Amino acid sequence: MEQITNLKRRQTTQRVDILSAQIADASNESVIIYDADKRIVHWNHASQRLYGRPITEVVGKRSQEVFGTLAVGPDWNELQAGGSWQGLAQRTWSDNTPILADVRLRALRDERGLITHFIEHGAAADARIVEGHAPTAYKDWIAVWSIDTTGAAALLEQIEQIRDHSLTAVDPSLIAEHLRISDMNVAASKLFAGGTSPSAMIGRSAYRYWPQKHRDKLLELSIEVLSAPQSEKPFMTVEAGTDILSVWRGTSDHPNLISSSVTGSWSDPEKYWDLAASEQRYRNLINNVPLPVWQVDARIMSDVIHRLMSNGVLDIDVHLKEQPDLVRFASEAVVVTEVNDSAMRLFKGSSREDFLQSVTYLYSATPEAAVRVVKAHFNGSRNYSEEMKIRTFDGELREVLFYVTFPQIPEKLDKTLIMMIDVTEQRRIEQQLRKIESEFAHAARVSALGELVTSIAHEVRQPLSVIVTDADTGLRWLDRDEPNVPKVKAIISRIMENAHRANEVIRRIKDMAVKTDPVRTAVDVNDIIREAVLLVRSESQAHHISVTTQLAGGLPQIMGDRVQLQQVVVNLLINSIQAIAVSQRASRSISVETTLGSDKELTIAVRDTGGGIPGNDMERIFDGFFSSKADGMGMGLAICRSIITDHGGYITARNDGALGAIFVVTLPLPPEIQNDPEPLDPYRKQPDNKR
Amino acid sequence: MSAKSPITVAIVDDDLFLLESLHDFFDAMGIASKTFKSADAFLESGDLPNVHCVLADLKMPGTNGIQLLELLVKQGGPPVCIMTSFADSRTRAAVRNFGAFGFLEKPISSADLLAFVSTARPN
Lengths: 691, 123
Description:
Chain A is an alpha+beta fold. Chain A is built from 25 helices and 22 strands.
């Protein structure tokens, strides 16, 4: 609980310079400044607490006048002769109850060696120490930040002009972002900045490095100091619990420089010990997590992002295009502060020091990931994850799932956590599975084709064999001296019969592909294409071919056989895939496009980059048993044409220059739609049932 | 047994056109032949001791060409020539390993057919 006991603005006194008074007031120990005449010129807050008397009551008085004649110590003679005195002083509280104080006094001299002041530091003496032991110095700490407020001052001035001096409306967080550390003492760095060297802290947000429980109060005091006229040198101080907070303005040559301090005592350190303990727990957690974990100090990046935002940058993509170095700068400035053993094992490093450097090594195999991390951070995401490659210290590439958690106020902003999960093995197995799958699909197709070829070969060769043998037999009968004409006639008629039989086989194959009993339902051509693309995906991926679709919206449904139409699209896609696979071209893509051609028809166009159809083949490609492929049966396009013709449409092929082939399927719309621009209900598209 | 033909060929195939066609061919060549529309019909006919060689299709309903071949080789029966309209290398090897005398692919070359019959002819 904060208790503000004293909040006042004090002007410079004639007797003691403001800086001395400020230092004194910032101390948790009693500090009393005497002039050369041993009269009190300054008396800090701790003195008031220790002796129960306000400064107004003691200024100008000598020690005996304040503490009474019964007071014992200090020995002023020894002090004047030796320059210092240390010991126990017996004094009184304001109600005359005795107090034992442990005091140290020092004489301050000017250039000529004349005593100008005496400074006394004092604290209540511990009763246990009085039992004859030497008193130990009262351990006190003071953390001091020197703060550059140029940005905040400008902001305040601006607001003041707009708001007509009503500072109540100032958003403190806006000011907080403009308080930049220009220096800090060792205590401040040790206690509140994790031991970072003060020079490395320059330019960072003072607000964020103030102890969290005092931030808002210190900000409030800072705003008050900043709001005071430039001519004044305000000094604000409050007690907050057992700590004392102070903010003051520095010298007039640096009007934008203010100082802040927090003083505390080690006698009440449990809050900081708690902090240290939780820190330790946290560190243990990181070390014991069986996942590779990095703790990263990304405050520089946070600062950059805050600056960008306050400069009105809204679109980080645009900004990164204009400032391509920003990400590199960020990666170099963001450093790893902690790393666990799992992480070291993942990167195959042996020395922890190799890991405690800028984060660039995390992104060395996937530099674009750093860009995406910056974007996610800018967009205020709490977490970001992606699958990426890393390069271990011995040069190996591994696949990992990368997770980063950005800290948010009021958490510890210096603790960005990065985790990685090594998925190299899984991905390798998956890739193998995909390969097997695609090989299997290919084998299945080949074996299905092989079986078909075998059965066709058998069916056709059977009558052919009859024809060949009969022809031979017929010739032999005719070659006789007396040709056996009736026998030859019978044989020739069997030849004809078997020739028809062979032809019948071919007709039956076509019937197998195009069912004689047509199914006609309302079908969505775009859906059919999406499914067909999925069906050939493993095949297209195996050949590194990208298949894109550009499907016209609001396409009316047509009447057709879903399976047959899908077979057509799959056939065209497989044809294109095989053409590209054979051509070995660098450009490997297939696009499927649907358009509403006129009010009577729609078209499906499949274009590939397989080099196209040789000019003299163009005429024959839709004929049965025509194939340009070594192992092709030449049925695919013939079947496609039969199916499309059966649907009342037509299929054409042409070349797209030397790039590849374009197959265009044109299908008629149902008559109702041709007459009516608005599709009728039965043909309305059903809600998409996507996988 | 015909006087002018020293041998009789058994033709086993499920295709009746082919049976007739081959029978007519052998007829034109003055070679006696008996036709069977399946291996089982041939085995049940009791004609086995009367034939000098067997021309059998590979794929037939019931006992197929290879099984017939196996059976006849085991019994020390007449030489067998297998006919087929489609054969991969594995089938070819199997046919050879089972001890076939010949292997003819359809459409059958008359010269090959006559060569088989003449080598199968007993002294």
